[in-house]
Amino acid sequence: MNAIIENIDVLLSGFLTTLGLSALAGFTSFFGGLILAGFAISNNPTLRKISMLYVALMQNIPAAAHLFFMIFILPVLGLKAPFFVLAIIGVTIYFSAYYCQAVRSGVNAIGRGQLEASRALGLKNMQTMRLVVLPQGLRNSVPPLINTTIALIKVTAIAGVFGVTELFGTMLQLINVNDSAVIALMLVTGIGYSLITIPAALAAAAVERKVAFNS
Amino acid sequence: MQATNSMISIKGVNKWYGSFHVLKDIDLEVAQGEVVVILGPSGSGKSTLCRTINRLEPINNGAISIDGQALPEESGPLSQLRSEVGMVFQQFNLFAHMTVLENVMFAPIQVRKQKPAAARARAIELLDRVGVGAQKDKLPSQLSGGQQQRVAIARALAMDPKVMLFDEPTSSLDPEMIKEVLDVIVELTKGGMTMVVVTHEMGFAQTAADRVVFMAEGEIVEVSTPEEFFNNCQTERAAEFLSKVL
Amino acid sequence: MMNVELYDRPGPLERRRIRLWTLVLAIPALAGVIWVVTTLREQGILDSEAWSILTDSEVIVSLLTGLLATLKVAGVTVVLSLVVGLLLALGRMSELRWLSLPTRVWVEALRGLPEILLVFLIYLGVPAVTGLNISTFWALVVGLVLYQSASMSEAFRAGFLALPKGQKEAAVALGVRGFKTLRFILLPQVIRQILPNLVSEMVRVTKASSLGFVIGYTELLLSGEQAIEYLGGQYAVPIFAGVALLYVIVCLLLSWVSRILSERLR
Ligand SMILES: Nc1ncnc2c1ncn2[C@@H]1O[C@H](COP(=O)(O)OP(=O)(O)O)[C@@H](O)[C@H]1O
Ligand SMILES: [Mg+2]
């Protein structure tokens, strides 16, 4: 217990770093995912293939391997940057693929009848995309987008073993010097993550119930 | 030569799904103001034919033209042509993210560039005409099937189409709602609209059609007036079909 | 591919316009590729000598041994998670509140935690509390099972809820009770239903098993790291590429199996 009280400020700063890392990496990943999703739903077959190839490759390489590459291999190549920045890039390369899939699944869930109705009324391809596909598709995508973000927050913990002092990394450092408080430190860390992920999961479930259009 | 009053002209159309020949040498002319009802067993290609008329289904060969204009291959001019062809689907296909009123105003504003106020006034008029004016601010999912289909008809009419295509408009409705939708369609036939209607409602075909087209296995087997078709059909296949449905 | 056709089939003019756009976009893309390739070459990363390390039999053997360890962790984890997940699902669906409520809290809480925290909880926590040593293999497996079983219990529950209600009633009417209803009537159907789901969980677990790297269990990623350590930095990129490719191949194969299964079972 003492280990927690004495180090509450360090833990808090780790928690805030987790929040910051998640927010920044989440933002860049979401942005990357939107671009990939744009490729995936474009009418250009080459762009669609590029998007599919990217997702198939990057999604299937484990997060730990992505971070390993950024933090251990890039410096060997002479590229040096703070761990925090490298972690953001590594997470972004991985999670862009997941955000892309989240948007795609939302678009795929649109009934083909919606598209046919729009075409039959004389709307052009781009109008159908902008006025029918995107409003419904993005709305369908909200729950998977939240769930992807939850997964991203949990994955940022791996950056802790690669030298980023976010919540999990902070915990590891504290365990090193307080080996009698292992369980307490892990409990507090777990609570820290739950404080973010559980409300988000509840929100995703609530949105899912609300979003469902019945067709 | 094409008859001057031909509104829809289908000539030598063939279509395959892979190796499956869905439409076999289809020829059909629909005159201005004519109501053509397409009958036939399910799987005979009625929907496919109906959907080729506005190129929701592309064809492999043959030619289709509407009001003398061949169906364009490019999507720009195709959209232009489609805006003059109303279509009503079996599954209604109202836009799920828009209210009833927005559904009806949508294409006039986006495609015809009408002023919202004008589009709105016209939409309300049409919704009242099909008897769902009171529902205008609801979402489609809050309406019964019969109400949704009537909104879908109003949505198509809002574009002042030259032609209306109906693909089994009452087939997914509960029996008690079929009449309210058929009444709206019958009303339209009286207004001189050119219509192609795929349906299993024999009563409707008998009273409202100018001509009946009977399809089986991707072919047009028989074309005749309703009286002739229902009382004195020429082919065995038609007789067999009628014995099952009547 | 997309399931819905988002665009009308393009006409000849439009196809030409699309191809033109592809060419226009290809110019900067090509420039980018050339830049990357020259940079990599200047760094000596494209040396064929360095890449030929991937044909070295010792390297191949050590990476494949790593892959085998990865698959071993994944396989054991999935099987255990299946059993624990089923128990959790039954617990959560139980009519006994003292059973269903804690199970529910357990499942929700675990699903909100990072897997790496659970792996460390076992790896450091078990020795700290009990004084017993735990092997890295079991620390990894148990940590992953804690998370995966919670996640699979939700799949099981969805599977049970999707069963027609009549099934259970018919079983009761036939006099088949309790455990037998479950074992012979409900479970086979649920397993059948969620089988594709289970295979895609295998993909998740295969990737998650790379956490063995951080606790020192020599699976694929760690064996790659050890090879780089041993051979030297100039081999870092080729070896990493080999490791990444193995993950991609295994995961794509599993996803493919899952897709085939879900099509077959439909
Ligand atoms: N997209 C498709 N791909 C392959 N076969 C199809 C497709 N759409 C329809 N068909 C087949 O074409 C035939 C005609 O279908 P359809 O025009 O819907 O018949 P109908 O409306 O007369 O019931 C059916 O046998 C159907 O299975
Ligand atoms: Mg049909």
UniProtKB/TrEMBL annotation, chain A:
<keyword id="KW-0472">Membrane</keyword>
<feature type="transmembrane region" description="Helical">
    <location>
        <begin position="151"/>
        <end position="175"/>
    </location>
</feature>
<keyword id="KW-1133">Transmembrane helix</keyword>
<feature type="transmembrane region" description="Helical">
    <location>
        <begin position="53"/>
        <end position="77"/>
    </location>
</feature>
<dbReference type="InterPro" id="IPR035906">
    <property type="entry name" value="MetI-like_sf"/>
</dbReference>
<feature type="transmembrane region" description="Helical">
    <location>
        <begin position="181"/>
        <end position="207"/>
    </location>
</feature>
<keyword id="KW-0812">Transmembrane</keyword>
<feature type="domain" description="ABC transmembrane type-1">
    <location>
        <begin position="15"/>
        <end position="204"/>
    </location>
</feature>
<dbReference type="InterPro" id="IPR043429">
    <property type="entry name" value="ArtM/GltK/GlnP/TcyL/YhdX-like"/>
</dbReference>
<keyword id="KW-0029">Amino-acid transport</keyword>
<dbReference type="GO" id="GO:0006865">
    <property type="term" value="P:amino acid transport"/>
</dbReference>
<dbReference type="InterPro" id="IPR000515">
    <property type="entry name" value="MetI-like"/>
</dbReference>
<feature type="transmembrane region" description="Helical">
    <location>
        <begin position="83"/>
        <end position="100"/>
    </location>
</feature>
<feature type="transmembrane region" description="Helical">
    <location>
        <begin position="20"/>
        <end position="41"/>
    </location>
</feature>
<dbReference type="GO" id="GO:0022857">
    <property type="term" value="F:transmembrane transporter activity"/>
</dbReference>
TrEMBL record, chain B:
<keyword id="KW-0547">Nucleotide-binding</keyword>
<dbReference type="InterPro" id="IPR017871">
    <property type="entry name" value="ABC_transporter-like_CS"/>
</dbReference>
<dbReference type="InterPro" id="IPR027417">
    <property type="entry name" value="P-loop_NTPase"/>
</dbReference>
<keyword id="KW-1003">Cell membrane</keyword>
<dbReference type="GO" id="GO:0005886">
    <property type="term" value="C:plasma membrane"/>
</dbReference>
<dbReference type="GO" id="GO:0005524">
    <property type="term" value="F:ATP binding"/>
</dbReference>
<keyword id="KW-0067">ATP-binding</keyword>
<dbReference type="InterPro" id="IPR030679">
    <property type="entry name" value="ABC_ATPase_HisP-typ"/>
</dbReference>
<dbReference type="InterPro" id="IPR003439">
    <property type="entry name" value="ABC_transporter-like_ATP-bd"/>
</dbReference>
<dbReference type="Pfam" id="PF00005">
    <property type="entry name" value="ABC_tran"/>
</dbReference>
<dbReference type="InterPro" id="IPR050086">
    <property type="entry name" value="MetN_ABC_transporter-like"/>
</dbReference>
<comment type="similarity">
    <text>Belongs to the ABC transporter superfamily.</text>
</comment>
<dbReference type="GO" id="GO:0015426">
    <property type="term" value="F:ATPase-coupled polar amino acid-transporter activity"/>
</dbReference>
<dbReference type="GO" id="GO:0016887">
    <property type="term" value="F:ATP hydrolysis activity"/>
</dbReference>
<feature type="domain" description="ABC transporter">
    <location>
        <begin position="8"/>
        <end position="242"/>
    </location>
</feature>
From TrEMBL, chain C:
<dbReference type="GO" id="GO:0043190">
    <property type="term" value="C:ATP-binding cassette (ABC) transporter complex"/>
</dbReference>
<feature type="transmembrane region" description="Helical">
    <location>
        <begin position="20"/>
        <end position="40"/>
    </location>
</feature>
<dbReference type="GO" id="GO:0006865">
    <property type="term" value="P:amino acid transport"/>
</dbReference>
<keyword id="KW-0812">Transmembrane</keyword>
<dbReference type="InterPro" id="IPR010065">
    <property type="entry name" value="AA_ABC_transptr_permease_3TM"/>
</dbReference>
<keyword id="KW-1133">Transmembrane helix</keyword>
<feature type="domain" description="ABC transmembrane type-1">
    <location>
        <begin position="67"/>
        <end position="258"/>
    </location>
</feature>
<feature type="transmembrane region" description="Helical">
    <location>
        <begin position="116"/>
        <end position="147"/>
    </location>
</feature>
<dbReference type="InterPro" id="IPR043429">
    <property type="entry name" value="ArtM/GltK/GlnP/TcyL/YhdX-like"/>
</dbReference>
<dbReference type="GO" id="GO:0022857">
    <property type="term" value="F:transmembrane transporter activity"/>
</dbReference>
<dbReference type="InterPro" id="IPR035906">
    <property type="entry name" value="MetI-like_sf"/>
</dbReference>
<protein>
    <submittedName>
        <fullName>Amino acid ABC transporter permease</fullName>
    </submittedName>
</protein>
<keyword id="KW-1003">Cell membrane</keyword>
<feature type="transmembrane region" description="Helical">
    <location>
        <begin position="60"/>
        <end position="90"/>
    </location>
</feature>
<feature type="transmembrane region" description="Helical">
    <location>
        <begin position="235"/>
        <end position="257"/>
    </location>
</feature>
